[in-house]
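Hi V.,

Quick status before I head out on leave. The structure for the redesign project is tokenized and pasted below; the design run finished overnight.
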């Protein structure tokens, strides 16, 4: 190997690489999101079972349907959750048995099935939303600092439907953007 090959100083730096770390910024961000997701799921797992009497995976289906009054096709739910259709069929059956969703056929498609939330499910989600949102914020705070939590929550819909909450920064100052 030639000396110039050993020290390629003329090569451009990876655009995402930030000094002080071996991973590019995008990979570090992705790892942080994975850690945050894991923390949220661990905290919600038990809470969802206690408060809603559904499994975590069933809860994810309810959340997908919550903002869609027209419902979603089963195939789309499977795609969005990255779940096999057979597993989803079982989860939907459990939710239907609990009175939380209904199934209907898709107009013009004999095989298509649309899933909709029932009023019972909407009421249950409304009753527990503040507790669930607080749990999500607390779990994020275990993995991220206040600045990151504020930035991430700024990208997320307002889970609690209430007033924004301020989170103190590490220096004790109030950030300019509030947690929603």
């Amino acid at each position: 190997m030639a000396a110039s090959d050993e020290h390629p100083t003329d090569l451009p730096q990876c655009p995402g690489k930030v000094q002080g770390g071996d991973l590019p910024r995008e990979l570090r961000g992705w790892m942080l999101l994975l850690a945050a997701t894991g923390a949220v799921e661990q905290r919600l797992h038990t809470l969802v079972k206690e408060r809603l009497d559904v499994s975590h995976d069933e809860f994810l289906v309810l959340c997908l349907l919550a903002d869609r009054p027209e419902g979603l096709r089963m195939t789309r739910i499977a795609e969005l959750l990255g779940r096999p259709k057979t597993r989803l069929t079982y989860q939907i059956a459990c939710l239907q048995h609990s009175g939380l969703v209904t199934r209907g056929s898709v107009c013009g498609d004999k095989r298509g099935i649309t899933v909709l939330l029932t009023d019972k499910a909407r009421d249950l989600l409304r009753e527990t939303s503040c507790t669930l949102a607080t749990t999500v914020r607390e779990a994020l705070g275990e993995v991220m600092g206040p600045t990151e939590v504020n930035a991430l929550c700024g990208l997320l819909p307002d889970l609690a439907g209430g007033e924004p909450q301020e989170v103190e920064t590490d220096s004790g100052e109030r950030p300019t953007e509030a947690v929603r």
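Above is the designed sequence. The first strand starts at residue 72 and ends at 73.

G. will cover questions while I'm gone.

Best,
W.
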